[in-house]
Design brief:
Elements: H1 2-16, E1 33-37, E2 43-50, E3 54-60, E4 63-69, E5 78-84, E6 88-89, H2 93-104, E7 111-122, E8 125-134, E9 137-151, E10 158-168, E11 184-195
Antiparallel strand pairs: 1-4, 1-11, 2-3, 2-11, 3-6, 4-5, 5-7, 7-8, 8-9, 9-10, 10-11
């Protein structure tokens, strides 16, 4: 009884081995095309100082992104992101809505966008500069990006990235609640994209 089970487990491991291999971190091996956000494997967090006591963490539950990629012209890649500011989540529904309205002015400015304007690469790392439109104001912001890899196995053709960035909300005309919330916004992004 144990022997057939062991054989079946070994066969299953051999069959799934290539699919679970480490993704390639060479961007040149990622095929050309348009890649769309795989929303079940994506998170967008922001941190802001709360009364100088802690780094208060905010999550946006609804956002979308896509990028166009050509390994023959990697620096010409373009990235577009759209964030639903009303989807702010701080772990409490009532406070989340109040915070979105009071802190982000989400009723008046329900959407934030980021459109890349320049990409500078250094191996699997790089900087993506783009126009961030937040609180109705557009200004350049730079993200530090790590290319986590590309793979075309078990879950289909997909690529993963980590990114961080920072900006001052006062630069975008958002200075309300300054007694409670700091000026510096830190972004933490983890995303996977699938080839369209």
């Amino acid at each position: 009884m144990i022997r057939p089970l062991a054989v079946a487990l070994m066969a299953a491991m051999l069959m799934t081995g290539p699919a679970l291999a480490a993704p390639s971190t060479d961007p040149a091996k990622m095929p050309a095309g348009t890649y769309g956000l795989e929303k079940t494997h994506a998170s967008l967090l922001a941190r802001v100082r709360h009364m100088g006591l802690s780094s208060y963490t905010l999550r946006f539950n609804r956002f979308d992104a896509s990028y166009d990629w050509d390994p023959k012209a990697p620096d010409a890649a373009t990235l577009k992101v759209s964030i639903d500011m009303t989807s702010l989540d701080v772990g409490d529904e009532k406070i989340s809505k109040k915070f979105a309205d009071d802190f982000l002015d989400a009723k008046k400015n329900p959407k934030a966008t980021f459109v890349s304007t320049a990409i500078v690469r250094d191996g699997d790392r790089g900087k993506v500069t783009g126009d961030l439109t937040f609180h109705g104001v557009t200004k350049p912001v730079t993200l530090d990006v790590i290319f986590r890899g590309y793979e075309s196995g078990l879950l289909g053709a997909r690529a993963g990235f980590s990114a961080t960035g920072a900006f001052k909300r006062s630069d975008f005309g958002s200075d309300n609640m300054s007694m409670f919330a700091g000026d510096d916004i830190e972004l933490i992004i983890e995303v996977e994209f699938t080839r369209q």
